[in-house]
Specification:
3-stranded mixed sheet; alpha+beta; Jelly Rolls; about 30% strand; about 350 residues
Length: about 350
């Protein structure tokens, strides 16, 4: 079982799975290894609750100790019954019985929280978006810096980072992750799962497009979480990148141009041997326009160029048109561009 499987089942236990993740978790739990991993995670949670009881009065401490002993006796009795039945160590009945034990722990924790005026609440998320324009700089609660590109969003629990540093990304962003050996930093972007402790990298994961991870410092681990299969794709170090093709499932590693990342953070548009079809998508996100090709062959023209954050759409199109040998027409309201 890999880190991606552990991350998925952690979300399953916390009730934070999306519909697709819930389906993947159920498929994973249909395997012996998956059920063994769930069992290990549940045991770890039990130990955390037992080893870290809340501060309380002598009477509450005595009640807590009594309940701990009762829980231990229930687990011991259960394990003895499993040995007598001579059945596999992990199956659904075991999961359900441990769920009952865990429910008892939650009830006990709830009693202590009620005693001290605290309460459990559902997980709420903080979401940051950038509809259009140059990348915007954000600082997360753990001092991790995020440059969020146009047409992109990131989402994380409002309890971040105390309950973990789990981020969901849609679109493109550069992360300069604050080091934290206790709380690994994990990003879910489409089917890709990127996990680090402290490093800097950019992820490009727009829906329906090729995904890319570029590392500028440190080291990251990248996995693909698709249906019931989790595959580790690569461990990248500084100056390396991986390109993932969702349609074929093919991942390609290569050298990365680190200097272009700094230009990107500054808001520059950097196109290196790109087809106009890809360039147009970047222009639509940056300038909030809709572009159409009058001739499909023009979409395949390959162009290169670097443009500053202050360059206008017409300035960029004029230069690209000269390089790619095409013309264009911009509507009066500046919202529609026809490339000829």
């Amino acid at each position: 079982m890999g880190k991606a499987d552990s991350y998925l089942l952690q979300k399953f236990l916390e009730g934070r799975c999306t519909t697709e993740e819930l389906r993947q978790a159920k498929l994973l739990l249909d395997t012996g290894e998956g059920r063994a991993l769930l069992d290990a995670l549940m045991r770890r949670r039990e130990m955390m609750v037992w080893d870290n009881p809340p501060e309380e009065s002598a009477a509450m401490q005595q009640l807590w100790s009594q309940k701990q002993q009762e829980m231990q006796q229930r687990i011991a009795a259960y394990e003895a019954s499993m040995a007598a039945e001579k059945k596999p160590a992990i199956h659904w009945r075991k999961v359900l019985r441990y769920a009952a034990i865990w429910t008892g722990l939650i009830m006990l924790s709830g009693l202590a929280l009620w005693k001290f005026g605290k309460s459990r609440r559902p997980v709420h998320y903080v979401e940051m978006t950038n509809a259009k324009g140059a990348p915007r700089r954000h600082v997360l609660p753990d001092s991790t810096v995020v440059y969020l590109a146009a047409g992109s969003s990131v989402k994380y629990p409002d309890s971040y980072p105390q309950t973990g540093r789990d981020i969901e990304l849609s679109g493109e962003a550069f992360f300069d992750v604050a080091p934290d050996d206790i709380h690994p930093f994990t990003i879910r972007s489409g089917v890709l799962l990127t996990r680090v402790l402290g490093t800097a990298f950019r992820i490009t994961a727009y829906e329906g497009q090729i995904q890319e991870v570029v590392v500028t410092t440190g080291k990251v681990s990248i996995s693909a979480l698709q249906e019931e299969k989790t595959t580790e794709l690569a461990q990248l170090t500084a100056g390396r990148k991986i390109t993932w093709q969702p349609e074929t499932g093919k991942a390609i590693q290569s050298a990365a141009d680190i200097r272009s990342i700094e230009q990107w953070k500054a808001g520059d548009l950097v196109f290196t041997d790109m087809q106009m079809a890809e360039v147009v998508l970047a222009l639509e996100r940056r300038y909030g326009v809709t572009c159409r090709f009058e001739k499909t062959v023009t979409a395949k023209h390959v162009v290169s160029g670097t443009f500053s954050a202050t360059d206008s759409l017409t300035g960029v199109l004029d230069m690209l048109g000269f390089v790619g040998k095409f013309s264009y027409h911009l509507s009066a309201d500046g919202k529609t561009c026809i490339i000829k």
